[in-house]
Amino acid sequence: MPRRRDPTTDDPSPTDTYGAGTYGRAFADVYDEWYHRVTDVEATTALISSLATETGADAPILELGVGTGRLALPLARTGHEVHGIDASPEMLARLRAHDPAGTVVPHLGDMGRTLPAGPFSVVFAAYNTFFNLVDEDSQRSCLMMIAERLTAAGVLVIEAFTPAREDRGGDRTGGDRGVEERTAPDGGRILNATIRDPSRQTITGQHIHIAPTGEVVLRPWMVRYLHPEQLDEMASGCGLRPVARWGDWDRGPFGPTSPRHVSVYRRDP
Ligand SMILES: C[S@@+](CC[C@H](N)C(=O)[O-])C[C@H]1O[C@@H](n2cnc3c(N)ncnc32)[C@H](O)[C@@H]1O
């Protein structure tokens, strides 16, 4: 594990300025248009729904970082009660606008500090959202709260990218800097500038969105990534033991070259 930051001696950290609500504030206006097909919605909702049914308890499902409801809304249509927490009022406002009947129960809050009471049959974080907790303490605190809120047979499911081997904390000190360019859905350009810090296991990014009108909008983002085995170790320390790992939401195999994983944890008895 990377060492803890010492605020008295270390350089300022990007986490000093990046808060729980930063991502949502920056991306809410474009999230639906840019990311509605970013991961497999049907496979995700099918797997989460069947895992909830397999637990045998009639307890609700909780999505961490529910955003605008891309996954939670179709999941609610499978018949389960679905709750979603998000730190961004802007994201939750869009969720409410998509859900006039109130099929998803929204909770405003930082998932590193607070979670709804539960109990829940399934708690899940899709599309790297667990890595939106950008320091080790908040990741650990979130896992501990989840362990306290799962039903006896309940499960935590985390979908995340698999970092490259050389990105393990402490293996390198230099870090990476890069800029990728692509066409924006509005026909403008997006420059995605990133700084990777292997010692903190963080990637700090900035979407520089140049609209066709010439207007420039900055959209900051940040993740603290974990290798799958680091996630297992952290979860185990919080009372959640690893029970399955797949390479996708269809329960496909996970291997050493899998770009992402879907990992399942069960509460210690
Ligand atoms: C990448 S988006 C994913 C949204 C949705 N889960 C999906 O798959 O479309 C991440 C979401 O997590 C929220 N988020 C980031 N940090 C958070 C935190 N500390 N607590 C709660 N929500 C957070 C953001 O506001 C955003 O809505």
Main sheet strand line-up: 3-2-1-4-5-11-10
Number of strands: 11
Computed CA radius of gyration, to the nearest angstrom:
18 Å
Topology as a string of helices (H) and strands (E)? HHEHEHEEHEEEEEHEE
What is the terminal-to-terminal distance?
26 Å
Secondary-structure-derived class: alpha/beta
The CATH architecture of the largest domain = 3-Layer(aba) Sandwich
Total separate domains: 2
Shape: globular
Write down the CATH topology of the largest domain: Rossmann fold
Biggest sheet layout: 7 strands, mixed
Helical content (DSSP H or I, runs of 4+): 10-25%
Hetero groups in this structure are: S-adenosylmethionine
Query: So, the CATH homologous superfamily of the largest domain?
Result: Vaccinia Virus protein VP39
Just give the CATH class of the largest domain.
Answer: Alpha Beta
Low-confidence stretches: 169-174
Q: Count of DSSP helices?
A: 6
Beta-strand percentage? 25-35%
Average pLDDT level: 89
